[in-house]
Amino acid sequence: MGGAHPVMEEIIRVNQRVELEAVVRGEREHYPSRIEILDDNGIVLAAPLRGGVLEPLRIGDPVKITIQHKDSLYEFETSILGRRSGHIPYLVVKWPTGLTAANRRAFFRLDVLLNMDYAILGSEQVLIEPPIPEKRGLVKNLSGCGLLAWVEDEPDLHRGSRLLVDIHLPETSGTTIARVVRKEPIPEDHRGRVAVGLQMEDISPTFQDEIIGYLFQQQRERRSKGIL
């Protein structure tokens, strides 16, 4: 379709959740969207809304699309070809000439308040019989590739530590192996907990999609309420 390379067609798929970046009202904005239709005329996306109202994106406006595929992020620059109507409003953008690898930090993060359980893994521990995550933590910020959590401090918790983390979303839960990339005290916390930044190193594509879907849903709901 659209003369796309086979690898591109594997990554750009119908129902794939994406992030659309555009300049709106003079500000660079990020919107959750989804690929609805693929044909020779272009890529049809769910049009971004704010408070239930269409955002003023115009034909010819440049946009950047970020897509998560397996454990990687890809992005491409394109432009808006037109609009379509249906059960939801759509935008049509040009097929890209190619994809580039995106910085994993480019994928949006959202402040949340979710429970998690975790266990600290030994430096070379093989997960033939994984430990049961029994320690409790609080997820304060989440993305499809990392999280910020408040946990109890202990000597084995340091930069480079690997954790088996069970993240509890409202309707499901799943596990990931994550590495501590930073650790900081929380001055305002009377319990003396620490904030740890965790980078996900091993997560199933299904659970990663569920995290991203949850974040997109939260982003839409907050924008419709004027919170974002």
Question: What order do the helices and strands come in, and which of them pair?
Answer:
Layout: H1 6-11, E1 17-24, E2 27-39, E3 42-46, E4 49-50, E5 53-54, E6 62-69, E7 72-84, E8 90-93, E9 100-101, E10 110-121, E11 135-142, E12 146-151, E13 162-168, E14 173-185, E15 194-203, H2 205-224
Antiparallel strand pairs: 1-2, 1-6, 2-3, 3-8, 4-5, 6-7, 7-8, 7-9, 10-11, 10-13, 11-12, 12-15, 13-14, 14-15
CATH structural fold name of the largest domain: Thrombin, subunit H
CATH architecture level-2 label of the largest domain = Beta Barrel
Radius of gyration: 20 Å
| Structure summary, number of beta strands | 15
How would you classify the helix and strand content by structural class? Answer: mainly beta
Task: Please tell me what the overall shape is.
Answer: elongated
Distance linking N and C termini: 36 Å
Strand content: over 45%
Sheet of most strands = 6 strands, antiparallel, barrel
Find the CATH superfamily of the largest domain: predicted glycosyltransferase like domains
Number of helical segments with 4 or more residues? 2
The overall number of domains is 2
CATH class categorisation of the largest domain: Mainly Beta
Mean pLDDT: 86
